[in-house]
Amino acid sequence: MTGAFERRLANRITSADRVWVSVHASGLSRNEIEAVAAKYGKKVVWRCADYTDQLLLIAEPGQLPLRTRSLFSPRTAMEVLPWLVTGMVGTGITVNIQLDYDVFATLVGLAGLALAAVAVVLPRLLPRPVRIELLAREFDGSPWVRIKPAHYPVSALMIGYVAATYGYRYMGFVPGNLGPTLVYATTTT
């Protein structure tokens, strides 16, 4: 059984320069993960842990965690989602009124609602290392970063470790209707 876990981990390690690995999800101990990484010339360059799991960033020795930015993140999806749903439902209603309840218009409205449901649930369905990779993309070197924990279903402690990985420190939180927004700043700010 351990051989299958090691092969799966080896495939992940060799497929990318940097990989976040969950000790819990991998089915291996931290020492076993380090041994597999060493076989491929890589090592654990950063570790984040909370009361539920340890996440290890595996890369070549000497590499620091890389700052990257992507167009898609749960935060972006949640900011665009209300406008997208409003537009699709509005289009569906308008076309329904103008075309005497056309089936196409109804489908557009339903598609908007389905997109809303998927966008809200998707982050919770992703594996934990993928959520951490998405979270890490938020810390892209900007002087201030605001994180809604609801967008990345991991503990606030884990968010703090990831922020520290990229040179950010906790500044406080802003209360909101959908939960608090955690505010982080670079250590030079």
Topology record:
Layout: H1 2-15, E1 19-22, H2 23-26, H3 30-39, E2 43-49, E3 54-59, H4 74-98, H5 103-125, H6 128-138, E4 144-147, H7 156-165, E5 168-174, E6 181-186
Antiparallel strand pairs: 1-3, 2-3, 4-6, 5-6
Provide a short characterization of the protein structure.
With 189 residues, the protein is of the alpha+beta class. It contains 7 helices and 6 strands, in the order αβααββαααβαββ.
Helix count equals 7
- CATH-assigned fold name of the largest domain: Phenylalanyl-tRNA Synthetase, Chain B, domain 1
Strand order of the largest sheet: 1-3-2
Q: What is the straight-line distance between the termini?
A: 49 Å
- Could you name the ranges where pLDDT drops below 50 across 5 or more consecutive residues? none
Count up the domains: 3
Strand content: 15-25%
Helix content: 40-55%
Second-tier CATH architecture of the largest domain = 2-Layer Sandwich
Mean pLDDT: 79
According to DSSP, the number of beta strands is 6
- One letter per element, helices H and strands E, the order comes to HEHHEEHHHEHEE
Account of the 3D structure:
The protein has 189 residues and is α+β, with helices and mostly antiparallel strands. It has three domains: 2-59, no CATH class; 74-125; 128-186, Phenylalanyl-tRNA Synthetase, Chain B, domain 1 (2-Layer Sandwich). Helices cover 51% and strands 18% of the residues. It contains seven helices and six strands. It has helices at residues 2-15, 23-26, 30-39, 74-98, 103-125, 128-138, 156-165; strands spanning 19-22, 43-49, 54-59, 144-147, 168-174, 181-186. It has a three-stranded antiparallel sheet. A three-stranded antiparallel sheet has the order 4-6-5, with helices on one face. The chain is globular, with a radius of gyration of 21 Å.
